[in-house]
Amino acid sequence: MTPRRLTAVAALLLTACGCSIATTGAVKSGQAATGIQPGTRLYFLDQHGTRLTIRPGAQREDLQQTLDSLAAGPDRAEDRSGLRSELPVGGRVQATTTPGTVTLRLSWPAASLSAAAIQQLVCTAEDAPAPGPAPKIAILSSDAPSAIHQECDLHRAG
């Protein structure tokens, strides 16, 4: 038998054998994936750096509500799981939006924030519900003569 015929016979035998997986029909396995998980997406810190946590809820909070939740710090469950915040206690962040940009006005000096605290703000603002693509983030504070433009390191890397 020639190599060409041998190959054809082997292919025919493999096709006839199939893969031996029995048909099962439809299998119920829960709801289909729907994209972004509902709930408020906040970025806190743990021993490894900036980390996303999703607070359960029927829907995601709007941008200002999300920033208010971030400024309030981790809830009890997040605290127990080792999450923390480096944002000043009692501070406030006021968000304003223009097409493609979110401006965060801080109630404390920007110079008092660590790089990790800035990442908490920027990542949370970038991930909050907003129309269109992820916005550019500008930070304003009493000690900054002009806006500081930042990107979330986690979103840029991934």
Give the overall shape, derived from the CA principal axes: elongated
- Distance from N terminus to C terminus (CA atoms, Å) equals 55 Å
* Element-level helix/strand string: HEEHHEEHEEH
Strand content: 15-25%
Task: Please give the radius of gyration in angstroms.
Answer: 25 Å
Q: Helical region count?
A: 5
Total E-strand runs: 6
Q: Percent of residues in helical segments?
A: 25-40%
Question: What multimeric state do the chains show?
Answer: single chain
User: Which ranges are low-confidence, i.e. pLDDT below 50, for 5 or more consecutive residues?
Assistant: 25-32
The biggest beta sheet is recorded as: 4 strands, mixed
Summarize the structure in words:
This protein is an alpha+beta fold. It is about 30% helix and about 20% strand. It has five helices and six strands. The strands form two sheets. The protein has a four-stranded mixed sheet, with helices on one face. A two-stranded antiparallel ribbon has the order 1-2. Helix 2 packs antiparallel against helix 4 (about 115-125). The N and C termini lie far apart (about 55 Å).
Q: Summarize this, please?
A:
The protein is an alpha+beta fold and 158 residues long. It has five helices and six strands; from the N terminus they run H-E-E-H-H-E-E-H-E-E-H.
Write the layout of secondary structure elements.
Elements: H1 3-17, E1 40-46, E2 49-55, H2 63-72, H3 76-80, E3 93-98, E4 101-106, H4 115-127, E5 136-140, E6 148-150, H5 153-157
Parallel strand pairs: 4-5
Antiparallel strand pairs: 1-2, 3-4, 5-6
Helix pairs in contact: 2-4
